[in-house]
Design brief:
Blueprint: H1 2-17, E1 22-23, E2 31-35, H2 43-46, H3 74-81, E3 102-104, H4 125-145, H5 158-161, E4 163-167, H6 170-176, H7 182-205, E5 210-214, H8 223-229, H9 243-266, E6 271-275, H10 277-286, E7 295-299, E8 319-322, E9 325-328, E10 338-340, H11 348-358, E11 364-365, E12 368-369, H12 373-376
Parallel strand pairs: 1-12, 2-3, 2-4, 4-5, 5-6, 7-10
Antiparallel strand pairs: 6-11, 8-9
The structure holds 2-acetamido-2-deoxy-beta-D-glucopyranose (3 copies).
Protein name: Kinesin-like protein KIN-1
């Protein structure tokens, strides 16, 4: 009896000291990713819609790698943490890339809302889900024919045991500000999330059970938006970010969180994890020097110099003649000092910071504890 009470007291003490978490082992056999440039590992480039020039990719891949960054993206660091290889892009099919451990359908510029003829990127979320359905049907068909493709395609049960990751919505909001008032942007959010829900439900119907959904970041802090919409100081918050854009991101995230809760209620046989990327990125921009950065908003690769080093007419690596002078958007001397790479996307250093924060589990709902094996054994 006395011993039992003592153990109970120790457990109470432990629960008091540690937040309530569920442990995650990252034993997913495969990852299927959907999203925009935050996690595109080569789709838009393989589709031939845009091209990326050096210095993109210089820090890690030593050449442009289909990623909008100087190096790895958050998804790359997450794959590493899960002991899985980098995800190949669905459309980047030449040279026998392996899709055994998953496939990436994310495409830069994509939106949740259905693409229109004027969209930057035709691969909106509904199309990415269609591509996944085609991918899965092909895999099932090929597996039925024999085993010689095992190295290149997932096993059938990977579709139910795999993790489905999402990072999309930023372009729906950022794009809307070019033609809508803030009130109209805010009012459009429920409709955007309805389309997102439709896609998630289609994936569930195809057997997806583990969902990991990133919310959207503080887009008002991107140099691209500060340059265009932050011309008047009254539009900026204390960090120098466009308040309206961040307000839209926060409302989107609030409603996205509610959607995740609703799906968790509907799909009790599934894990639906909401990840608060906004808070991670906003804290990084607010307290950048504490995390080893020197520039929270100014782009590393761009033209024009401080305060933004950004010109919407010249993307990273491009050369253009402006007013009779040839100008090239070059990289800064040390990208690890910058949070932002090209005015729109984060540097590898910032992506690495964001992924380590994700992996603490503190920003997830439900929260999880990574690499805390003793918690695995606590059974009450
Ligand atoms: C949910 O996640 C936990 C921990 O990773 C795992 O043990 C469980 O099998 C998952 N549930 C489903 C339905 O895959
Ligand atoms: C920045 O750090 C300070 C001091 O720890 C903290 O109070 C503040 O909440 C942080 N800002 C953000 C946006 O996280
Ligand atoms: C080009 O020259 C015009 C006229 O001098 C000036 O207003 C404009 O800002 C210049 N453009 C750039 C990108 O420097």
């Amino acid at each position: 009896m006395a011993a039992k009470i003592c153990i109970l007291q120790i457990f109470t003490l432990i629960s008091f000291l540690l937040p309530v978490t569920y442990s995650i082992e990252f034993k997913f056999p495969a990852i299927f990713n959907f999203g925009d440039s935050n996690s595109d590992t080569g789709n838009l480039i393989a589709a031939g819609i845009e091209s990326l020039d050096p210095p993109n990719g210089q820090t890690y891949f030593q050449k442009p790698s289909g990623r909008y960054s100087d190096g790895r993206l958050v998804i790359d660091f997450l794959m590493d943490a899960m002991k899985l290889p980098f995800l190949n892009a669905y459309l980047d099919s030449i040279g026998l890339p392996s899709f055994q451990k998953g496939c990436n359908f994310a495409a830069a510029g994509s939106t949740i809302h259905q693409a229109t003829p004027t969209s930057v990127c035709p691969f909106s979320f509904d199309i990415q889900v269609n591509q996944f359905l085609h991918f899965k049907a092909r895999v099932v068909e090929l597996l039925a024919k024999g085993k010689r493709l095992d190295k290149y395609i997932p096993a059938v049960d990977y579709f139910s045991k795999g993790l489905y990751t999402f990072d999309i919505g930023q372009n729906d909001l950022a794009g809307a500000f070019y033609s809508k008032t803030i009130d109209q942007v805010l009012a459009s959010i429920p409709k955007i999330l309805e389309e997102f829900e439709t896609g998630l439900r289609r994936l569930y119907d195809e057997g997806a059970r583990n969902f990991w959904i990133h919310n959207t970041g503080p887009l008002g802090c991107l140099a691209q938006n500060v340059a265009k919409f932050g011309t008047d100081l009254s539009m900026l918050d204390e960090l120098g970010c466009v308040s309206g854009h961040n307000q839209a991101a926060k409302l989107f995230n609030l409603q996205l969180h509610a959607l995740c809760k609703k799906l968790q209620g509907d799909y009790t046989d599934s894990n639906i994890t909401y990840v608060d990327i906004y808070t991670i990125k906003y804290s990084l921009i607010a307290n950048y020097s504490r995390y080893g950065f020197e520039q929270p908003i100014m782009a590393c690769c761009g033209v024009g110099g401080a305060p933004l080093n950004y010109n919407s007419g010249i993307s990273c690596g491009q050369t253009k003649v402006i007013n009779g002078t040839s100008v090239t958007a070059k990289a800064c001397s040390d990208s690890t000092e910058y949070v932002n790479w090209d005015g729109i996307h984060y540097t590898e250093a910032a992506n690495q910071y964001v992924s380590t924060q994700i992996l603490t589990g503190k920003y997830s709902d439900p929260p999880f504890a990574d690499k805390m094996p003793f918690l695995l054994d606590l059974k009450f």
